[in-house]
DNA sequence: AACAATTATATTGTGTACAATTTAAATGAA
DNA sequence: TTCATTTAAATTGTACACAATATAATTGTT
C-alpha cells in the first residue's frame, strides 16, 4: 500500500526507474553511435527511414513522440551531415518530406549489429528483452490513453 | 530470433520503449508539477532531499545518475527559487552541501498526492506498477554492471 | 468567392543531459 | 615537506525536449 502512504520514495517511482534506465542504455549505445557520428535520437530517426525510405516531419513526430521544435533543428543537422534530404511536398506546401540519402542508407549496414552487441553486453537473453519490451509497450499505451482524457 | 536478423525495427528496441515511456509519464506529471513550479528533474532532487534533508552534489549525482554539468545549474535555479541552499563544506572545501529550505520542505505536503493521482489516471493497479518497477530496476542494474566493464 | 478555422512546420526561449575541460582543494608517495 | 595524483564542482559547448507562438498553406463554411 505504498501509494496510500504519506510519501513515496525515489526508488519506488516507476517513472524514475524508466528515466534512469533509458539514459543508462543511451550510455551503452554511445560508443557504437560515436563510431557512426550519430546521436541516439538521430539513430531513431534513421531506424524509421531505414524501414520506409521516406517520411514527413509530422509522421516522424508521431512515431517518435517528438514535436517540430525538436525535430526541425535535428533534421537540419542530419541534412547538413548528408544523411537525409528535406523537401517541401509539391501537393501540399505545408508538408516537408524527409528522404534518406545514399549515405544515410549506407549506415544501415554498419548499424545492424548494434542491437545484438548491446544484448550481449547486458548478459540478458533475447526472450527477457522481448518480454520486458512488451510490458513497457503496454505501459506506454496505458499512459498515452490516460493523457488523452 | 529478432536480434539475429539483419535489421531490428524501432518498435522492437527496448531502449526506445523506455525512452518514449519515460517522456510520456513526464507529460502526465507536468500539470501537477506546474502547480508547484517544478520541473521533473527538480522534483527528483526534492524527493531525495525530502528523505534526508541534506546531500552533496556528488551524492545527488550518484542517486539520480546526473553529473555536475547538469546538477550545478539546476541547483542554482532551485536556490534562486528558494527551495534549497548551496554551501561549501567547512571540512572539505571541494564539497558543496545542498540543504532543503523551509519552503522546499513545505512543498512535500502538496506533492505527496501526486503518485496516487498518476496511478489512478493510468488505471493500473499498485501491484502492476510495483512489479514493472522491480523489472526495470533489475534491468537498470544489469545495464549499469555492463557499462562498468 | 471570402474568410474563419485548421494544419504542418518553423521559431523562440527555457531547462535539462552530457562530454570535455578547468579550477581549486585534498591526498598520497618519495 | 614537496609535488604529482586524485577528487568535487564549475564551466563550456553541443544537442535534445518541449511549451508557446508565429507563419504560411489548406480546408471548411457561408
Q: Any overview of this molecule?
A:
Two copies of one chain form a homodimer. Chain A is mainly α. Chain A is built from seven helices and three strands. The first copy, chain A, has a three-stranded antiparallel β-sheet with strand order 1-3-2. In chain A, strand 2 and strand 3 form a beta hairpin. At the A-B interface, helix 1, helix 2, helix 6 and helix 7 of A face helix 1, helix 2, helix 6 and helix 7 of B. The structure holds a DNA duplex (30 and 30 nucleotides).
Summarize the largest interface: chains and residue counts.
A-B, 64 and 64 residues
Number of helices of chain A: 7
Mean pLDDT across every amino acid position of chain A: 93
Q: Roughly how many Å apart are the termini of chain A?
A: 26 Å
Beta-strand content of chain A? 5-15%
- Indicate the low-confidence ranges of chain A by residue numbers: none
Biggest sheet strand order of chain A reads 1-3-2
Q: From the helix content, strand content and strand pairing of chain A, which structural class follows?
A: mainly alpha
Q: Give the biggest beta sheet of chain A.
A: 3 strands, antiparallel
Describe the global form of chain A. globular
- Per DSSP E runs of 2 or more residues, the count of β-strands of chain A stands at 3
Q: Radius of gyration of chain A, Cα only, in angstroms?
A: 18 Å
Considering DSSP H and I runs of 4 or more, what fraction of the residues of chain A is helical? 55-70%
Give, in order, the helices and strands of chain A: HHEHHEEHHH
Quaternary structure type = homodimer
What's a concise summary of this model?
2 copies of one chain form a homodimer. Helices cover 66% and strands 9% of the residues of chain A.
Amino acid at each position: 500500500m505504498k501509494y496510500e502512504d504519506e510519501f513515496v520514495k525515489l526508488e519506488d517511482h516507476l517513472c524514475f526507474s524508466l528515466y534512469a534506465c533509458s539514459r543508462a542504455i543511451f550510455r551503452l549505445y554511445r560508443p557504437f553511435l560515436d563510431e557512426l557520428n550519430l546521436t541516439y535520437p538521430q539513430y531513431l530517426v534513421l531506424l524509421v527511414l531505414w524501414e520506409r525510405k521516406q517520411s514527413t516531419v509530422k509522421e516522424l513526430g508521431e512515431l517518435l513522440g517528438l514535436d517540430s521544435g525538436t525535430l526541425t533543428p535535428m533534421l537540419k543537422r542530419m541534412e547538413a551531415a548528408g544523411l537525409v534530404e528535406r523537401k517541401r511536398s509539391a501537393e501540399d506546401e505545408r508538408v516537408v518530406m524527409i528522404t534518406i540519402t545514399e549515405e544515410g542508407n549506407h549506415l544501415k549496414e554498419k548499424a545492424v549489429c548494434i542491437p545484438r552487441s548491446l544484448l550481449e553486453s547486458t548478459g540478458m537473453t533475447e526472450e527477457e528483452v522481448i518480454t520486458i519490451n512488451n510490458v513497457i509497450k503496454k505501459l506506454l499505451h496505458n499512459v498515452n490513453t490516460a493523457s488523452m482524457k
